[in-house]
Amino acid sequence: MSQADVRRRVSPTFLLSELRLIAVRRRNQVGLAALAAVPIVLAVAMKVATPDGPDEAHGPDFFSQILGNGFFVALAALGVELTLFLPIAVAMLAGDAVAGEANQGTLRYLLTVPVERTRLLAIKYAGLVMGAFVAPLTVAASGLIVGFLLFGAGDVTTLSGTQIGLGEALLRLLLVCLYLGVCLSALGALGLFLSTLTEQPMGATIALTMLTVTSFVLGQIPQLDWLHPYLLTWHWTDFGELLRDPVSPGALTPGLLSAGAYIVVFLSAAWARFAGRDVTS
Amino acid sequence: MNDLAVASQGLTKRFGSQVAVDAVDLAVPRGAVYGFLGPNGSGKTTTIRMLLGLIRPTAGGHHLLGAAMPDHAADVLPHVGALVEGPGFHPYLSGRDNLRRLDAADRTAEARTSGTRIAAALERVGLSAAAGKRYRLYSLGMKQRLAIAAALLQPRRLLVLDEPTNGLDPQGTREVRTLVGELAAEGATVLLSTHLLAEVEQICTHVGVMHKGRLVAQEPLAQLRADAEPRARVLTDQPADAARVLRTLGLTEIAESASEASGQLGAVAPEKVVASLVHDGVAVRGFSVEAPSLEDVFVRLTGRGFDVSG
C-alpha cells in the first residue's frame, strides 16, 4: 500500500487543544480562583488588623511593608502560596496529564489516533509549563489589584533600602513570576514523571504535594544543610533577590540551574517510563 | 502478506507467569468482515491492544495493512479506526468537543475540514442531536456510539471494533450492524471482536475463535459451517427404536430424548434414513436435517457457551 498520502502537519492544533482542555475544566477554574483569592484574604486581614513583627524565616518577608504600599500584597501572597497552594495547583495538572488520561480511557484513544508517545509527553509538559507560569502571574495580578485598592500605590522600597519607581517594581514583579514559573516547571517535570507511574490522577497529585512539603520540611532542618542546595524547593525563595538594589547578577543562577537539572532528569525519566509502557487502561 | 489487512506471526503476551495470548497467527484478508470471537477473558482485547501498539508483544510480531508494526505505527494507524475496550472520553467535554480533541491530535487530519467530518461522523452514528451535551450525561449506548464516531473521523482502510454493540439497545445493535455492512461495502476491512453470535452470523465473512489465549479456529464463515457435520433429527414417540435404526445406518453421536432421536449424518443420505425408519415401523412425526448452529460449533471449539441473548 502507499503510505505517501499520509502527510504529517506541524501545527499548534494539538497544543491548543491541550491548553483548552486544561482551561475549560471547571476544577481548574475554581483552583485558579482560589489562588487569586489568597491575596485578597491576606490584604483584607492586614487592613483590619496590624501585624506583629516579622518572623525570622528562610526567605523574604514582605508583610511588614504592605501597609505602606499595596505592591507588597502581591509579593507577600506569592511567598505564602509558594509553599503549598502553587505546588498543589501544579500537582493537580500533573495528575491529570497522563494518569488522568489513562484513568478516563482517553489515553488509549490518543495513542491509536496515533499520537506518538514522545509527542504526547511534550504536549502534556507544555500544558504543565503553561500552568506553572499562569498560576504565579494570577496571584501577582490579583495581589496588585487588591493591594492598590486597599493600600494605594507608590514608589517601592527595595530589600536593600533604596527606592525604585513603580514601573521598575512592576517589571521586577514580572521577573519574580517568571522565575517562580521556572521553579514550578521543574516541579511539573517531576509531576509528569509521577503521572506516568499510575492510572490514579489523585495518587500522582498527592505524591507530588507530599514530596514538595517534604522538601520544604527538610529545608528547615539545619543538620541537613549539606542536602539543602539539592532540594527541589530550596532555591524557590531566592525570588526575593529580585527585590534588592542592584540585583546581583548571579543571584538566581543556582535556582535556575537546579530547576534545569530537575527538568532534564525527570522529563528523561518520564520518557523512559512512558515510551515503552504497556497501556492497559 | 500484502493481501492481508491484519497478519500476525506467533503473537504472544505474557503478564508475569500468565500467558494472556499464546502464539496467535491472525490472517484477516483485505475486505473481510472478520468476526473475532471468544469467551470473556480469552485474550481478544489483549490481542487487539497488541495489534494497535498499545502493549508490546512478549514474542512474535504483526503487520497492519502490509506495514510492520509498531515501527510504522505513525504511517499505518491514521488508516485504522479503532474502538478498544469500550468508550473513553473526557466527561466534562461535550461529545463534539471530545471528537474535536481527537481530531486535533491527528497530525494527518486537515483542520479545515474538521467541523464537517465531525458532524458527518456524529450523523452517521445518530448522535447529532446530543452532540453538544456533556459526555458525562450520555447513556452507555450514546457513549458507545460516540466511540464509533471517533473511529469514523477519517476514511479508514481498517476498522478494529472491540465489542461495538456493547450497551446498545436492539435498535442500536441493528444500526451498528448496518453501519459495519456499509463500511465493508465501501472497501474497508473490519475486525470485529464480539461474543454475540447473531452478529457474526449476519455480517461476518470470516471468523477467528480465541480460547484461553490461543486461536483455535480461523476460517471463512462458509467453510466453518460446511465443516460442521449436519445432524438428522427424528421426532417420534419411539425414540429408542429410532435411535437403534440410526445406529444401524451408521450415524454417529446418537442422542435420544423423550420425543426425539438424533445423530450425525456423515455420508448417509437423509432420504435413506426416512425410508429405513418407515420400513422398521418407527412412527415418524417429523424429520429434519440441521446444520449445527454457530453456537454449537463454538461450544465445541471452546468447550463453553456464549452469551447469545443479543
* Main beta-sheet annotation of chain B: 6 strands, mixed
How many strands of chain A?
A: 2
Question: Which range best describes the helical content of chain B: under 10%, 10-25%, 25-40%, 40-55%, 55-70% or over 70%?
Answer: 25-40%
Class per helix and strand makeup of chain A: mainly alpha
Q: Helix count of chain A? A: 10
- Spatial gap, N to C terminus of chain A: 32 Å
Radius of gyration of chain B: 24 Å
Instruction: Give the low-confidence spans of chain B.
Output: none
Large-scale geometry of chain B: elongated
Q: What's the structural domain tally of chain A? A: 1
Which strands sit side by side, in order, in the main sheet of chain B?
7-8-9-4-10-11
CATH architectural arrangement of the largest domain in chain B: 3-Layer(aba) Sandwich
Kindly estimate the percentage of residues of chain B that lie in beta strands according to DSSP.
25-35%
What is the secondary structure topology, with strand pairs?
The complex is a heterodimer of chains A (281) and B (310).
Chain A lengths: L12 H12 L1 H23 L14 H4 L4 H12 L2 H20 L1 H7 L4 H35 L4 E2 L5 E2 L1 H30 L5 H19 L33 H23 L6
Chain B lengths: L3 E12 L2 E7 L2 E3 L3 E5 L6 H8 L7 E6 L2 E3 L3 H4 L3 E4 L11 H11 L8 H11 L15 H12 L6 E5 L7 H16 L3 E6 L2 H7 L2 E6 L2 E7 H7 L3 E6 L2 H11 L2 E5 L3 E5 L5 H10 L4 E7 L3 H9 L8
Parallel strand pairs in B: 4-9, 4-10, 7-8, 8-9
Antiparallel strand pairs in B: 1-2, 1-3, 1-5, 5-6, 10-11, 12-14, 12-15, 13-14
Helix pairs in contact in B: 3-4, 4-5
Tags for this model:
heterodimer, A: 281 residues, mainly alpha, two-stranded antiparallel sheet, 1% strand, disordered N terminus, B: alpha/beta, Rossmann fold, Alpha-Beta Plaits, 2 domains, 6-stranded mixed β-sheet, 5-stranded antiparallel β-sheet, elongated
